[in-house]
Design a protein that fits this description.
alpha/beta; six-stranded mixed beta sheet; four-stranded antiparallel beta sheet; 11 helices; 35% helix
Length: 304
């Protein structure tokens, strides 16, 4: 007799199964979904899950990158190579185009463009008539994202009201919406940063080298380690030095900090992540670090 315990799924396979179910539900329920893909680790895992959900067929919806123009070269190289390997369509929504057209205004050259992404994202959703948008947000990232449901309803202005979200009892998702409204979908809602890294190891997922320890010229601002970059030159008087660092999250290079680390393999990163008590955004995003309300305000306006 076979022991039923032999069929018990690991916690990663439970999370994987839940995410695959969500992908298939959205593909069946919505007319024009898309998947936000930046080349960051969460969107990479989300892409792998989408592959599994529809294998051996191709992923049945396009990918979209809201491009700030302030990118790390390693991430963009990975993004383009992965899209070519999969043979899927990539929609690049450019913040620079939004600036050039007068849709948004940059505070100053080199300033963080994170807030500017909102208008670019909403314009791209409207232009492409997407009615469901997969995002890689996780509830452990910070307080505002912990308020999200798996299906996050957005009104016809793309805005989010945290007090007006639909119940999801028994993992039943309500995707009803009117023309002009859409749903943000978060298949990784119940994952943690540690889960992401354990899944990367188990699935042998390739990720950009910037996530592993490497040497690069950096400087410190407000205690944060910033890479010397064309959009983030060191301020006057800042000391530039070489250090061994890695990135826990990647995004706008003007506001995304590195952490000192010797974790140059996935196993070492897992040990490091398991021991940390600071969220990745709290440790490495300058525009979120000093304002608890920053993310929630941006999400209400239509941010990821």
């Amino acid at each position: 007799m076979t022991n039923s315990a032999d069929f018990t799924l690991s916690h990663l396979r439970v999370l994987e199964s839940e995410a695959i179910h969500i992908f298939r539900e959205v593909a069946a329920e919505f007319e024009k979904p898309c998947l936000l893909f930046s080349g960051g680790k969460d969107s990479i895992v989300m892409l792998r899950l989408a592959e599994k959900a529809f294998y051996p067929a191709k992923i049945p919806f396009p990918l979209m990158h809201v491009d700030t123009g302030h990118n790390f070269d390693e991430v963009i190289e990975y993004r383009d190579r992965r899209v070519a390997e999969l043979g899927v369509r990539l929609v690049v929504a450019s913040v620079q185009d939004s600036i050039d057209s007068g849709r948004v205004r940059e505070d100053r050259p080199g300033a963080s463009r994170n807030r500017l992404q909102t208008t670019t994202l909403l314009d791209a959703i409207t232009e492409n008539k997407f009615d469901a948008v997969f995002g890689g947000g996780r509830r452990d990232e910070e307080k505002a994202r912990a308020k999200e449901r798996v299906y996050s309803f957005r009104d016809d202005f793309g805005q989010w009201d945290p007090k007006n979200q639909r119940p999801e009892l028994w993992s039943l998702y309500n995707g009803r919406h009117r023309a002009g409204e859409h749903i943000r979908v978060f298949p990784l809602s119940n994952w943690t940063e540690l889960d992401i890294w354990q899944y990367i190891k188990e699935e042998q997922v390739e990720i950009p080298s910037i996530y592993y320890a490497h040497r690069r010229p950096v400087y410190k601002v407000d205690g944060m380690i910033m890479a010397v970059h064309e959009v983030a030159p060191p301020p006057e008087g800042a000391e530039v030095f070489e250090s061994t660092v890695r990135y826990r999250t990647v995004g706008d290079a003007s506001c995304t900090a590195a952490v000192e680390s010797t974790a140059d393999t996935v196993d070492k990163v897992i040990v490091e992540v398991a021991a940390t008590r600071i969220t990745e955004r709290g440790a490495t995003r300058a525009d979120d670090r000093f304002s608890q309300a920053a993310m929630e305000d941006r999400k209400k306006e239509g941010y990821f």
